[in-house]
Design goal:
Length: 180
């Protein structure tokens, strides 16, 4: 089951990530950084409806994505850290986040022209969240989500034609499309 979430925003930046799809890794068939991009895409596209996944629109300029390369014992290791806020603070949303908390996941980050896959079923990311309580009336109040992990393979990049294979949950490509 894919859950569409509403992340409130008023601005849209076409040059950066606009959405993240988080899929629980324990429900995926086994694949690793050596599995081909198209095979991984086939696995993701053939997921049954019972798989836990969620799509979250990202707030412009309120997220960080790091995929740093480190050398350990002569091997290249990629340390991934993705963090972003999710608004508003809501008890139903907290219940959903609790089902993912401290579980292993993979993440697709979408841009208009391509997508990035972080984590694999063999080396997933750890999902964690915290509550955000602003000290001022105009501060962000909601949840801070964080995905952390390390693996041997770098992020997989999917270009626009490949990305179209992945089911997109009906988001408009441009904010102006709503006024047409």
């Amino acid at each position: 089951m894919i859950t569409n979430l509403c992340n409130l925003f008023t601005d849209f930046n076409l040059d950066t990530f606009y959405k993240i799809r988080i899929i629980e890794a324990g429900q995926l068939p086994d694949f690793n950084h050596l599995t081909s991009k198209l095979d991984i895409l086939a696995i993701i596209n053939d997921l049954p409806d019972t798989v836990q996944a969620m799509d979250v629109p990202l707030l412009p300029e309120k997220f960080t994505v790091k995929n740093d390369t480190k050398l350990r014992s002569g091997s290249k290791v990629y340390e991934t850290k993705i963090s972003f806020p999710l608004l508003p603070m809501d008890s139903n949303l907290k219940t959903l986040l609790e089902t993912y908390n401290n579980k292993l996941v993979i993440a697709f980050l979408y841009r208009q022209t391509y997508a990035h896959l972080y984590g694999t079923a063999a080396q997933p990311l750890l999902f964690m969240y915290d509550e955000l309580h602003a000290s001022n009336p105009i501060g962000i109040k909601g949840f801070s989500l964080q995905l952390d992990g390390e693996g041997y393979g770098d992020a997989k990049y999917y270009t626009n034609p490949e990305q179209q294979i992945m089911p997109d949950m009906g988001y408009l490509a441009f904010t102006l499309a709503g006024t047409l």
